[in-house]
Design brief:
Blueprint (H helix, E strand, L loop, with lengths): L3 E10 L3 E9 L5 E9 L2 E6 L5 E9 L4 E5 L2 E3 L6 H13 L1 E3 L2 E7 L10 E6 L2 E3 L11 E6 L3 H6 L6 H14 L3
Parallel strand pairs: 4-10
Antiparallel strand pairs: 1-2, 2-3, 4-7, 5-6, 5-12, 8-11, 9-10
């Protein structure tokens, strides 16, 4: 059943987040205003080396006041493709330059409230070129064995949806599923 949109209007806008009200009608005829958070889309890089380790960053997120491991990720700029953003973010945040990236998985993490899209890519060719240029992203950068990811998820050491989607898909690939 598809909901009808009779119109929508912006109630707050800035370069990071936009809040809209959508005049919607549900299939049962109930009509009301639904809040919609419009966000710029996100590119995520799952960088895997030849020792079956994934490049991750230990970082603090002030909104939830939590520390966790994350894949390199960031907003897609208006003049770049999602793949270009994944390559750029990896270099800026980690100091590792990746070669070709291939699409791993696509996700809409909270599509009941936001239009955010996450484009997750895999990169296998990588070269360290120096310290990260973005100094505010993480406390440390490490290569984590794929075999440790499940336990890290269970212990809530990986909680970001972009990272969870990426590493879970990596694990499915490793299992041959």
């Amino acid at each position: 059943m598809q909901w009808k949109i009779h119109g929508e209007r912006s109630i707050y806008e800035n370069p990071w987040v936009n809040l809209w009200l959508a005049d919607i009608e549900q299939p049962d005829g109930h009509r009301w205003e639904h809040h919609v958070v419009k966000l710029r889309h996100l590119a995520v890089a799952a960088v895997v080396n030849d020792r079956k380790q994934v490049l991750m960053m230990w970082r603090h997120r002030f909104i939830t006041d939590t520390w966790a491991w994350e894949l390199p990720m960031g907003l897609i700029e208006p003049d770049e493709t999602p793949a270009e953003a994944a390559v750029r973010e990896t270099l800026e945040e980690t100091g590792w330059k990746v070669g070709e990236v291939t699409p791993l998985i696509y996700a809409q993490p909270a599509n009941g409230i936001t239009d955010s899209e996450h484009f997750v890519f895999r990169a296998d060719a990588v070269e360290y070129v120096g310290p990260p240029t973005e100094r505010n992203e993480s406390d440390r950068i490490e290569w984590i064995p794929l075999s440790e990811l499940r336990g890290m998820i269970d212990r809530r050491e990986i909680v970001s949806s972009g990272t969870l989607v990426g590493v879970l898909y990596l694990l499915l690939n490793e299992a041959g599923l």
